[in-house]
Amino acid sequence: MKAQIKRRYAKVPARFDSSEVLRLIEKERIDSMYLSLLKGISHFSDETIADMLHVNVKTYRSYRDKNEILRKDIQERTLMLLSLLKHGIMVFGDSETFTQWLESENAMLGNTTPIDYLDTISGIKLIDDRLTGIEYGDHA
């Protein structure tokens, strides 16, 4: 199972790319393993992940615990969040440091936390753009 999860993680783009996400949805089986991967990499609570996916916690846990293909909107959000996490880990060096950044107030975002933006596609893109800025010398 771990090898299968690693293979799936390898397919997730390290940079936010809408066309790549759409291609993955079209070509791959986006199922509960991706939710397990999201949970394992992010260390977010079930409640936080459910909010990001726009489902209630019970629905999220049901999806996560069954080996079934996810709804398309859940597939898209899951892949986009995984891509963002992959990018953030590249920028910050590890998931813990990246998670701390996500949960800290950020002056570039009007003193809100980056994690507050991860419940919309535009918000995920905005935070990914901030990561790219950090890579090129912008302040966090």
Poorly predicted regions: none
Number of helices: 8
Count of beta strands: 0
Number of domains: 1
Sequence-ordered SSE layout with sheet pairings:
Elements: H1 2-11, H2 18-27, H3 32-42, H4 46-53, H5 57-65, H6 72-92, H7 95-102, H8 121-135
Helix pairs in contact: 2-6, 3-6, 4-5, 6-8
Question: How would you characterize this protein structure?
Answer:
With about 140 residues, this protein is mostly helical. It has one domain (about 1-135). It is about 65% helix and about 0% strand. It contains 8 helices and no strands. The protein has helices spanning about 1-10, 20-25, 30-40, 45-55, 55-65, 70-90, 95-100, 120-135. Helix 3 runs parallel beside helix 6 (about 70-90), helix 4 (about 45-55) crosses helix 5 (about 55-65) and helix 6 runs parallel beside helix 8 (about 120-135). The longest helix is centred in the middle third of the chain and has 21 residues, at about 70-90. The chain is globular. The relative contact order is 0.14. The model has no long low-confidence stretch (mean pLDDT about 90).
For this entry, give a set of tags:
140 residues; mainly alpha; globular; 0% strand; single chain; 8 helices
Brief sketch in words of this structure:
The chain has helices spanning 2-11, 18-27, 32-42, 46-53, 57-65, 72-92, 95-102, 121-135.
